[in-house]
Design brief:
- Four copies of one chain form a homotetramer.
- By secondary structure, chain A is an alpha/beta fold.
- Chain A contains 15 helices and 18 strands.
- In chain A, the strands form five sheets. In chain A, strands 8-7-2-9-10-11 form a six-stranded parallel sheet, with helices on both faces. A four-stranded mixed sheet of chain A has the order 13-12-14-15.
- In chain A, strand 10, helix 8 and strand 11 form a beta-alpha-beta unit.
- The longest helix of chain A is centred in the last third of the chain and has 19 residues.
- Chain A starts with 5 loop residues before the first strand and ends with a strand.
- The relative contact order of chain A is 0.15.
- At the A-B interface, strand 1, helix 1, helix 2, strand 5 and strand 6 of A face strand 1, helix 1, helix 2, strand 5 and strand 6 of B.
- Strand 15 of chain A pairs antiparallel with strand 15 of chain B.
Chain lengths: ~475, ~475, ~475, ~475
């Protein structure tokens, strides 16, 4: 084992642009709740529920509501700041929203349909939201569940190329209102696309297939292509393989950031915590049964097998890296019994329920069984994730790096795997390891942000206190970069 | 924010001594199961349960069964090794056990009483265990529940000073059989001791109080004093304040390591994971209700209010540092509604049950409720924690540090706060922050061990893959110490 | 075994009186929600929550929303009617409410404090409720938790006798507005009263003790005495022993109905179902751990040990009759490990949580473990129970019986044990068995109501269908009284 | 409403025959555990588990371990006796077992494979069980999951008619050893059979189809036909439609008892308790999500969609009668959102887990959520159900009835719907209502048994105590048949 020291300079453009976010599926529960939350925060709208008075917040947002340790204050106490204060980031109150939907409801109507927010809040938001109407969207019935047909009253007509052109024009319109645009797919889960030679396996073939009206191009891929061609970051919040090889290649060629897949919110998020905890404690999970039910339109759509398949795959791999990292507990190739079920139960609406059972082997043939019932309000957990994705993706576009041997500062590679914390199935560079363990994903974000301001990574050793016999005086900053040498 | 670079040299004595572990409460469920597990592993004893054939293991042990990433192999894949292979550590198979108990049962009988292991395993272990008989122990009825009186048939007589002397002689006897002895309190939870001026507030006063037969000295403090006077590391696995100021001072004066309090195993461990996860995700826990019941002798003893009080305090502070680290979610002084209940339910025996409900505020007045039912086999979770405590404490005694300005290598300060991962209420140096968040505690151990072999801390940034545009070639070791500079 | 046939004539007065209900603790969560629900139903008030539009209902009421099988219709199908249609009962919409409280808030303010109902509903109810103000009540600090002192701003002054007289005058005032008055204690749980010779052991002594200002008379007993002396039925909805022997005797002497104790709503109700189910299935519950937490004023008050003690006793006996009825599974004197815990967790408010674990022995040493988490909205479950208690108690006062040898029709004996379904600790005649099993309690009510209209009890044998070879034709009414003879 | 009194004489043959039980799927987990339990009880075999010493029992059996109230003893106390003492029933210790299996393992090997019983118990039972070897069985691959092929090493060859003849001969052989034989299908769940005109729609067509080798006859139907033709009661313990119309007709023509379908053990049993409780309390269940997983061979087989379909149907209708009986809560045609999921999770083996969530509407728009996690040891719950089925079915064959107008005593009609308590999808006479509510099903059995000894049904009115003013003296037997008249 011989470590190697490399030097890296990081530069962060400090001017924060006006950001426009365009949502595909704007009128869905996520889209309408995201928009409502932005406005409630911007206009500081208060409301009453049966539990009392409420004020708007961004609870559940990594950037707005979680903190990092900056160092010590003059009295030797830890100073924690919200992540969004480590570096200049977009203020949510300044974000402009726009988007598309296959349903023609305006955002006020969409918010009513969603049944996510309290009556008084909805009433106060209505004047703002009823002026917002999604642009018509792309509807290819074969990609989403047939039960979505009744919603699809607001769809683009014409050839695929014409649709692509319309979407690009929509984006360009938005660009005139703001400095930078990010496009987020928060629409229905589509079925998986087959990867076909000559069709979607290269950027070139993909563009040709669009022109030739191939039926193998999904709406989400079309939106991604439109965003890439307009030099806009595209984030995929659903599990399907939007980023077919041709699409990934196109993004690389154009130097456009892409990120995904599938917002990580409730059950999967907690599983990537618990499984990691257990394995890191030397305990061996052997069976994980995960059941979900929900009653919103996501649930309706997922009740169709091909769409569920996309979701199942996305949710299934979450423990793979955790298992692979412990060859003491798991022999090569050994698998955990892991099942994932999602069912549609209309009554519960947006109040998604997750029920999990973790069975683990402990000492000497013993078993530990952990049963979790989690009432995850679906959209209320997803909306801050959407915010974090766009805020962090925007920030990433202002960070550049220069290695010791380099002449110029260069950006992140175009697949933003740093956003893995926010995604169930993190998209990574070819050949790169997929990290699902949540604490590692969070450390990645936190430590990179700290590196941008010249702080060393958090190592949690706390040696100042453990070695008081050596360091008599308390140092002003125990975040000091520690160079250890062994002998 | 201005970090400061300090250099530190670390030296680890590589010769591993023969280790003797002396358990106070040897015949309890933890003590007997620990001994049985050691022997089953040493002699590779197999057994059958209704689920099939079993072989011995150390599942649940951080040092034996969890891994750390060492670097990359020649094919660029991560290499993970068990923590116990990072540095030379005591092999569990070589540990000698001895101890005291207020009950006269030999270890075979104690194992039967515990009802923790399978019949066939117990049968095979009996020949070894029936030769092991605890030494008589100290029984001061006012410190433990009155229901323990029936067990107390094997107790030291005489003055307190005589008892102290007997314990010291016992330790010296053990020292003749091995190279190093560690004493672990795994006996009953005692009631808290009042800290009294002139009695237990200084090393001197403490020793005088022992001589003068003060009723304010608990058995656990007496055992700690005996160990310290014999230069043996003492670990407190129960929640009471064994380490009264006088005891702590004595340890410091004698340069003896102490650690505690209260083995962290089931409910508290998972709580220090979940609460940390939630707060770090920007979600605000507002109410945590924690219920436990168990039916072993620990449960009997804790059914008395003063003993339960010790436990309740130990379990209550586990989220304090997590809350304090997030001033965005929690205003200064704001508290989580947090209750902890432990009940005695004889039927469940050693199969402790923990039921928790976490209520958290999420976006826009929403609530997230997580309900956990955890079947924690009490002793099976505690035994590997005991092993880790003695193995790591022994290792710590072989590590020394030298700062840039120092002449000599010096040891850890004598309170081993590095063992916080294994303790519900981590004992720390005066003035040092208490860390309860489990992932931070684990990172502390892992990164210090790595530092001992010259590896930098794990930062999880994965920049090799995120910056492929810069570093064309894959480096052989992405663990390389990264010096980042911002501009 | 030789059964004996007895004949009994039952007469039910069909004229339904105007009913007045007087609540002690009117401004509490139960009292204010009961009043709000009555009014919302009477005025058919609709409201919106985030889940959509709501109309008022009496869900959770046995009399209004559960059904009994009446017989078969012309097509041979079962006909089910709500219990309240079996016999003439008071229509909830006609009930007048009045009451007392130690807090001076009017009912609109009390409803706000309760945080039970939705904002829009509260707004619509406010005009009605703000006119309703509780009468001052009796506050003896030693009977309820000291934390209630801050609420007690509206209390009667003077001697105990004067207070009694005031309460009696209040009742008489109410009687002028309606035909019949029932008084219900829905106030705080008091601590238990000692039964003392010469103080509260006979009606006479009790009345004398009141005159002599004895400190051994609780407020709830005083209210009961006032109601009894005014010939009004008194129902005790809390667990304390309001009905000391002197009080019980007084009710008997005056021929006044009394009933109680402690509304049976959430955890205990389901326990009296599940334990009964298990034992009746030949499965042996061996350990039941029941944990509760709530954050309303009931929770505050119960956080004091003497008040909790009353509740614990009330909740503890619920499985005794079930166990006693199965001498195959339980040897004489054998007990189930049964614990009950109630904790105050402010944040959850009126949304009481119950967590239970049932461990049962099944075949051949196997164990069955049932874990239940129950989100019981405390007042929303209690209010329909209060309604059922007053509606059924009123009905009972119109039913009379005549045995074959009797000359006159006579009423129920004065302890209304028929209301056991609605009470955690059913009050019964001296010597009578206490039935806690919920299905038996419900059958009792249903079969007595049916008997009042000449229908035989429900026997569930369904012989019409099982013996089709005998009875070729389908009978018009399979409820027919079956006289079976064996040979 | 006008009840009608009918008189019925019941005669029970008191001589109990030697009973032989033939199990299809003898070597499965149910079959092997049933046999092992019979033998352990017969030979009073004790064993040790880690929890201590165990003796054999029939916990979970309605007939052996649950009780009925017989009346009062001389001191006025209730006398409860086990159901099996109400009437002469087969003693389990005298039952002879035989059967068929597609796997050739002897019963000792089958017991090992099942992993249900403790090692010491298995060791002691082995000498008895290894002599027992299933007869070869019928394997039509299209009826069960393809994953069963590897087990199928012990199957009948030849034409369908030849197989039928072999099975009949097997039964006749058994009949020589005992007085009466009952055949129970406890083998794999088959896919549903289509009902086809001319094939299986009449007894005649069914027999012809067997002769003509039709592929539309399932193995379970063939076994049923064999049993019927041999005048043996046939019970179907799996969910498939074994009793196609032709089979039902054949049983009727031959006057042979049939019963089924699908043993009711864990999740469905408790659901038929909880849903009934809620609706009977006036609470409205609106969504029930039921998840199961198990790891035994039943789970393997059910992982194939057609087999799961049979199970899903069987489990889905359990609340239908409960909902239909309450037109106050449910409008005509209104349905509860009800989903049932079963998954195969190998690790948990026979330790089936059921996780249910019940969401109910309560007062004024409130919601009650009950979450249940149930660790149901699959075979340990099923085996006593099998015992009850054969014991009660045998008893039923000795009971005859005579109406007032009849000349002769006649038996139960040939579909034993009285066994509904033990079946998930109770088979009933055409036109008869299906009762799923567990308490009604139990009352049916208990009251019929009581009627057989001349006792009136249990009405739970307890009037003796409620009317003490009338009946001064305590009657010797409050079970007295109560004739009530209203006026």
């Amino acid at each position: 084992v011989s470590p190697e020291v490399r030097h890296l300079s990081i530069r962060t453009e400090r001017k924060v642009p006006r950001l426009g976010v365009m949502l595909v599926g704007w009128g869905g529960n996520n889209g309408s709740t995201f928009t409502a939350t932005l406005l409630a925060n911007r206009y500081n709208i208060h409301w009453e529920s049966k539990r009392g008075q409420h004020s708007p917040n961004w609870y559940g947002s990594l950037t707005q509501c979680s903190t990092a340790r900056l160092g010590l204050d003059h009295e030797g106490c830890d100073v924690h700041v919200p992540l969004c204060e480590l570096l200049p980031m977009v203020d949510p109150n300044t974000i402009e929203v726009d988007g598309w939907d296959i349903s023609s409801l305006n955002l006020a109507e969409a918010m009513e349909r969603a049944k996510v927010l309290e009556p008084e809040l909805k009433k106060k938001l209505r004047p703002y939201l009823e002026k917002m109407k999604p642009r018509p969207s792309i509807y290819f019935p074969q990609y989403i569940a047939s039960n979505q047909a009744t919603r699809a009253d607001h769809i683009l007509q014409g050839t695929t190329s014409e649709m692509l052109e319309t979407i690009r024009r929509d984006i360009r319109e938005m660009k005139e209102r703001v400095d930078k645009v990010i496009v987020v797919w928060t629409a229905n889960t589509e079925r998986f696309c087959e990867i076909l030679e000559g069709i979607n396996d290269s950027a070139d073939n993909l563009l040709k297939s669009i022109e030739s009206e191939s039926s193998h191009i999904s709406p989400s891929t079309l939106f991604a292509v439109a965003a890439i061609l307009e030099q806009c970051t595209f984030i995929n919040g659903s599990p399907q393989n939007t980023f077919v090889p041709g699409c990934e290649q196109l993004a690389q060629m154009k130097g456009v950031f892409i990120a995904g897949d599938d917002f990580k919110t409730g059950q999967t998020k907690i599983k990537s915590v618990l499984a990691d905890f257990l394995v890191n404690a030397g305990i061996k999970p052997v069976a994980i049964a995960s059941y979900n039910h929900l009653g919103n339109n996501d649930g309706v759509n997922l009740s169709a097998p091909p769409q569920f398949k996309s979701k199942e795959v996305s949710k299934s791999n979450v423990i793979d890296d955790i298992v692979a990292a412990n060859p003491v507990l798991y022999k090569e190739g050994e698998k955990v019994d892991h099942i994932v079920v999602i069912k549609y139960v209309p009554y519960v609406g947006d109040s998604k329920r997750a029920m999990d059972e973790y069975t683990s082997e402990i000492l000497m043939g013993g078993l530990n069984t952990i049963v979790v019932h989690n009432t995850c309000e679906d959209s209320l957990l997803a909306v801050p994730v959407i915010l974090d994705l766009v805020v962090l993706a925007e920030l990433c576009s202002r960070i550049t790096f220069k290695g010791a041997a380099d002449k110029d500062y260069k950006p992140f590679s175009n697949i933003l795997s740093i956003l893995g914390y926010l995604c169930k199935a993190p998209l990574v560079q070819k050949g790169a390891p997929v990290v699902n363990a949540l604490t590692k994903q969070r450390a990645c974000i936190e430590n990179i942000l700290k590196a941008c301001i010249g702080l060393p990574p958090e190592h949690h050793m706390g040696l100042d206190y453990k070695l008081t016999s050596i360091w008599k005086d308390k140092y002003a900053n125990c975040n000091g970069l520690l160079n250890t040498h062994h002998s």
